[in-house]
Amino acid sequence: VTNGGKTTLAQKLKKMLPNCDIMSQDDFFKPESEVETDERGFKLYDVLDALYMDEMVESILSWMKSPASSGVVTEKPQNTRDNLKNTDDVYILIVEGFLLYNYEPLNELWNRRYFLTLPYEECKRRRSTRVYQPADTPGYFDGHVWPMYLKYKRELEENASNVVYLDGTKSQEELLSFVYSDIIQELKKLKG
Q: What PANTHER family does the record tag this protein with (predicted)?
């Protein structure tokens, strides 16, 4: 969901996990001139066609082939509250974005999937505090952003498995603690 805390969570996890890097779907938006406009004049940014998804897949695959040479920061995590020994050869890529699980070529790449949710009122409130380029036009949230979120969330619920839904109204600390612990468990399984 837009303004659900995806980027904040990813950045905090990066500081806590060994050999961790982040890739953001926002970096793959097409230029405004290539984004379709609907009959109401809304730029259709909240759809897969507004993104260079093939380039994103290629970037992820490239990172996976050679994570050590990707520029990933290999400094020791700030917080080592769990046993993170023997993880020097494990590299973690956090991919954050709003339409990741609705693009089939990506679905075979995930070890873990997290999906932040927000109720309508909270999402709209948070969205109203952000400045976008280009700026949201009047009615854009209700006319495009929220309907597209509901559409893609429905598709996700019908087609994707192993998705952990997270309540974006919970505190950042609570969300961070849960996801961090879950990733540590996944690392232990992979190192098994």
A: URIDINE KINASE
